[in-house]
Design brief:
Residues 1-24 form the signal peptide. Keywords: Signal, Transport. It is found in: Cell envelope. Pfam families: DctP. InterPro entries: DctP_fam, TRAP_DctP, TRAP_DctP_sf. 43% of the residues lie in helices and 16% in strands. The chain has 358 residues and is of the alpha/beta class. It has two domains: 11-24 and 43-165 and 260-301, D-Maltodextrin-Binding Protein, domain 2, CATH 3.40.190.170; 170-256 and 307-356, D-Maltodextrin-Binding Protein, domain 2. The protein has a five-stranded mixed sheet with strand order 2-1-3-10-4, sandwiched between helices. Strands 8-5-9-11 form a four-stranded mixed sheet. A two-stranded parallel ribbon has the order 6-7. Strand 1 (46-51), helix 2 and strand 2 (79-84) form a beta-alpha-beta unit. The radius of gyration is 20 Å and the shape is globular. The chain starts with 8 loop residues before the first helix and ends with a helix. Bound molecules: D-xylonic acid. The site of D-xylonic acid has 10 residues, from loops.
Length: 358
């Protein structure tokens, strides 16, 4: 049953045009998982406002809509969620603060700006820690990750579930980048790169010889358009659905960090919900996170190909080239591993190893 399913038009349109050209399969948006379970008894009516950073065509929005559909269907319309995309209510940092004061019900930030609430989350910001998606998913589903979600308790924010933002790739408007030297620039100046508001990311780009500038995501497009920054780094799906190819000529598949998203609800809102509704919200968050990961996976390579078709010159780095980046950011580990916690890093590495193929 997909009674409330909508908002698939933009992407479906774009997808049709590319048929026959793309190598990666076009993401299938027509068929989100069926919504199962009975309609709950009447425990009052609530309309929840949810602010997100990304556009209507993003996996983040589409899965949030699925979350809304689950609540609507399972409560006969008594729990409704209004989603405000494109950072229109604020950036990740601001929206988390709005959750604390209760002026916003829900948001869906990256883990990186949320490290001010739960320091352990910074482990996700360590470069090249999670070698593949399988490992990243295992980490997000681990007890360690649940402990991080629980760590929000008392902050005014209840963290519901991890999902995929994804492997971050570098784009810029100045030159093709194949090596750390291309970032730093030998005869020319280092690239000015927008980073998320997070000290490890700042350290990564400083170490690579760039001029990092932390900035809210919502300001990024116009900052690139006006040449305030040369570039940025985000997963291909975000680069595509945010139309960054309009202002960025070059992309490099650096995969330097895998960052998750975290779906969150204000503790004030949470406390107003009946226990039955709370349980539903938690369950729906998990289901939509799973769907988000599925969509994000389907989007990843496909988005890169779409960007190439739209004229972005994308450099696929070979193992040796990736190793050069890995080596160059070693000082980031030296600086941050003791602060983030060697035990925590070892815990994550254990999970990674348990997933790697023999
Ligand atoms: C969207 C952000 C964004 C993140 C960033 O709200 O800031 O670059 O990757 O997707 O969370």
């Amino acid at each position: 049953m997909t009674l409330f399913w909508r908002n698939t038009l933009t992407l479906a349109g774009a997808a049709t045009l590319s048929l026959g050209l793309a190598h990666a399969q076009t993401p299938d948006l027509s068929d989100p998982p069926a919504i199962e379970g009975d309609v709950l008894e009447d425990h009052g009516s609530h309309t929840l406002r949810m602010g997100i950073g990304l556009a209507e065509s993003s996996p983040q929005y589409l899965s949030s809509q699925y979350f809304a559909d689950i609540l609507e269907q399972r409560t006969d319309g008594r729990l409704t969620v209004n989603i405000f995309p494109n950072s229109q209510l604020g950036d990740d940092v601001q929206m988390m603060e709005m959750l604390q004061t209760g002026s916003l019900d829900m948001t869906y930030p990256s883990s990186s700006p949320a490290t001010t609430y739960v320091e352990e989350l910074a482990v996700f910001d360590l470069p090249f820690l999670l070698p593949n998606r399988e490992a990243a998913i295992a980490v997000m589903q681990s007890d360690t990750a649940q402990r991080m979600l629980d760590g929000f308790e008392g902050s005014g924010i209840k963290a519901l579930a991890f999902s995929e933002n994804g492997y971050r790739q570098l784009t810029n408007s100045a030159r093709p980048v194949e090596s750390p030297e291309d970032v730093a620039g030998l005869d020319v100046s280092g690239l000015t790169i927008r980073t998320m508001e997070n000290p490890v990311h700042l350290s990564i780009w400083q170490t690579l010889g760039a001029n990092p500038t932390p900035m809210a995501f919502g300001e990024l497009f116009s900052a690139m358009e006006q040449g305030v920054v040369d570039g940025q780094e985000n997963p291909w799906s975000t680069i595509l659905t945010s139309n960054f190819h309009e202002v960025q000529d070059y992309g490099s598949e650096t995969r330097h960090v895998y960052t998750p998203f975290i779906m969150m609800i204000s503790e004030r809102t949470w406390e107003r919900l009946a226990p039955e509704y709370q349980e539903l919200v938690q369950e729906a968050a998990r289901q939509s996170a799973e769907y988000e990961i599925q969509l994000a996976t389907e989007y990843d390579d496909w988005s890169r190909e779409q960007l190439e078709e739209k004229g972005m010159q994308i450099t696929r780095l070979n193992d040796e080239q990736i190793a050069a980046f890995q080596e160059a950011v070693q000082p980031v580990y030296d600086e941050w591993a003791p602060r983030i916690g060697e035990d925590l890093i070892a815990e994550i590495q254990d999970i990674v190893e348990s997933t790697s193929n023999p």
